[in-house]
Structures are given as C-alpha cells and as structure tokens.
Please model this.
Amino acid sequence: MSETDYLQRIQSAAVYDVAVVSPLDFARNLSARLNNRIWLKREDLQPVFSFKLRGAYNKLAALSDSELANGVICSSAGNHAQGVALAAQKRGIRSVIVMPVTTPSIKVDAVRSLGGEVVLFGDTYDDAYSRARDLEQQHGYVFIHPFDDPDVIAGQGTIGVEILEQASDDIDAVFIPIGGGGLIAGIAAYIKAVQPDIRIIGVEPDDSSAMRDSIAAGKPVVLEHVGIFADGVAVRRVGDETFRLCQQYVDEIITVDTDQICAAIRDIFEDTRSIVEPAGGLSVAAAKKYIADNQIQNQNFVTINCGANVNFDRLRHIAERAAVGEQTEMLLAAEIPEAPGSFRRFCEFIGRRGITEFNYRYSDTRKAHIFVGVQLKGGAEERQQLLADLRDADYPVEDLSDNEMAKLHVRHMVGGPSTGVANERLFRFEFPERPGALLDFLNAIGTDWNISLFHYRNHGSDYGRILAGIDVPENETAELEAHLADLGYAHWEESDNPAYRMFLS
Model:
C-alpha cells in the first residue's frame, strides 16, 4: 500500500463513534527538570483506557453487515480485547475474545462488561492465537488482528492527525511504543507524509526488542523469549506490514529497562496524578534517555501514553523499582568486620544520605555481610563517588543497583550460606502465573535433586518468578541441564552472581 493510500485511509478513518480526541497535555514538572518541553498524548483517557479501540473499530467499520453476520474474534490478553469488544458492541454484533488462562481477572471482567464472550485457553498469547484461528474456521468469525492489518494501522494513525492539530509549537520528535508495530506504523505513516522533518523514534523494552532486531536483520525475526513486565508490548514477532512501514518511516528505535519504565510511570503520575501501565511509560522513559544521551535542550517532544490498564497489585513492584530507575536510590552489598561499632563506622562513610533498607546476616566471627539501600540526590555521579569512597576505605563492596536477581529476590530474603550444601547451583525461573502454578513448577522440577534454596514472590504480574538452589553432584550436571532444557520454563543460571556469592553461598 502506498504512502498516499495510507494518508487517505487515516484521514477518513471511522474511529470517533467510540474514541475521543485525547488531550495533548504539557508535562510541566518533567519539562522543567529536563530543560525541554515534554507533551503527553493521553490515550490512557480513552473509554477502554487504551488506544486500541481506534484500530479495532476502524477495522469493523470497513466490513459489511454480511461479512460480520457471524461475529468477530480476536486473541488478546488485554487492551486489544477490550477495543474489539467495545467496537463490536457499538456495531451490535457478536464478539468472541480468546485470552490466555493467565490473564488477570480485571481484564477478563472488563471484556465481559463490554459484551465480549471470553474463551480462556492456554498459558500464552501464542496458545490463545492458535485457538482463535481454529474457532474462526469452525464458526465463520472474522478475525481482527491486533496490529498487522491496514485498517487497524490506519485507525491508530488518527493519533498522528490529532498530534499535529493540537501541537502549538514545532515538534522535534515523537516517541512511540512498539509492540507488534500497529501504533507506530500508523502515526509514522501520517506524520512523515505531512511533516517529514519530525523525527519518529520507536521505543521497546530491552527484553522485548522485536522491531529493533527485525530492522537490524532486514526482515521480521522471532524472539525466543520476551520480557513480561511491559506486557502490552511483549510481542515475539512484529507484523509484516508494520515492519515494512517502520523500515520506511522510523528514524530510530530506543530500548529502555524495567527500572527506567518504572521511573517514567512515576514521572507521569507526578504531572497528571494518573497511573499508566508499563507500556504507557515507555515513551517518557525513552525521551529521558534520548535527552540525557544527546545532551539536548529546549526542544519539543511528544510522548504517547498508550494505556492505563495496570493491575493494582503491580503498583508495589513499580514503586519499588522507580527509585532505582531514577537513580535516586542505589543498592549495594558490603562486607564489614564483625565487631562492635563497625556498622556505625560504615554509616559514617554513607554520610547524611537516607537509608531505605538494611539487611544483615551473620557470616562468621570475623565478618558480616550487609545489603543496603541508599538514597541519592546526585544521580550516577554520586553513586560512583560513594562506591569509590567505600573502596578507598577498604570496604569490599558491590553495586547491585543493576543486578536483576538482587532487586527481585535477594533484597527480600532472610538467610545466609548453608554449610551442609556442597554442590549448590542457583537458577532463576519464570513461569505463567495461575492457580496451582507453583505446585506445577515443583512437580516439573522433580525429586531427583534436593532444592537447597527457594524464593518465590508474587509481583502482581502474569508470570511468577522463582529463585531456586539445586544441590546436584558434579557427575549429574549434564543430566540436570538436559532436564531444565526440557521443562520449557525461561530460566537463567545465577551461580556466579555476586549477590549470591556474598549473601547466600
């Protein structure tokens, strides 16, 4: 499809029967802090709290009554599902939504409240997608793709129309989240046709960078594993058409990590008093990174708050990680003498900084290991200076601020080394969260080896995370590794992790 065809489709897209013209809000606090003008396109204020209803409704509007006679079907774990259900309700037709059984109840209930018939199937989106395609063939439904469809892309492109109409100043760049690519493809196709000098910058989580990797490879690639935090953009393969449009129109793709996303969610809250979902924080996180990396001042940047469908339970995890992402907190591990006054002397080196947490475990009569959270005001420079001061004072110290295992598990654990375990290996696992999932996990691990360490914490997300120590004799190492590979759970060995060596091994 040509540039002219997309421009015409976007300009004539039928979205406003269900969508609203979302505000383009000036982020006053964030702009002052970054010395640039940051604007928030508030798609989190749509009736289903996400932009997805635009593309879904535009697709349904393009279909005839005879095509829709049997109804529509889609596979989704969240925002697309609500968009299709609302669009179908507006058209007065049947909608069937296939969702993984791991989908949080808040999203399932939201779809049902919009008249959608929910089918729960499988643990992953891929399972739900396959089931939806089977039902499509059996019952003659029309399948509504979440991103790889020209009408869906055109519907999302109406956001680009609104941005150019609402902006009071010349825009230097627009930061757009990427999952399957429908949102950025539609916005980019319109903006580049009308104002080609505006930079289009895509944003992906660093553990779900399907579009960045595809563009680097010159063709769509399939990721072996995607991150689970920003579930709204956790896509293993982008669309063929969205890939083509991104190749043509996207100037740059930036990746951000979980801590940067959490810090961006807090930034948005402080300016709007609204809480976006992790995918909704991607654009602000990328704008902050882009400004810092390029030392930019006095420019106009638009970010897309693409959704606000976040489970309440996840807020504790977001708040916990936001301080590290903003570099207002650092996590460090240190070894101090096991002697009276040693903790006081260590705190003297910390100075008047606030202590956010302090974890201690007796090691032996000579030394103690401590895990400390320290408040910072000077960001990365203060973090490096504090580490240097402690090392100059001969404290063995490790900066754990970027250590995923330490942030997910060790900071919440009370324990220490075990003298009765001779061959412990440490692994971190992820598995779909659902009733009985923990028992299923333990059954899958089996009883051939002793579990010597175990930590599980529900983080309010669709996946559970476990840290497990397994006592395995050296002559059974190959057997263990083959067994873990056959399990099918995403896992990483952490036996050499410094947080493990200092506190648990």
About this structure: Residues 150-166 form the longest helix (17 residues). The domain at 3-51+150-320 is CATH 3.40.50.1100 (Rossmann fold).
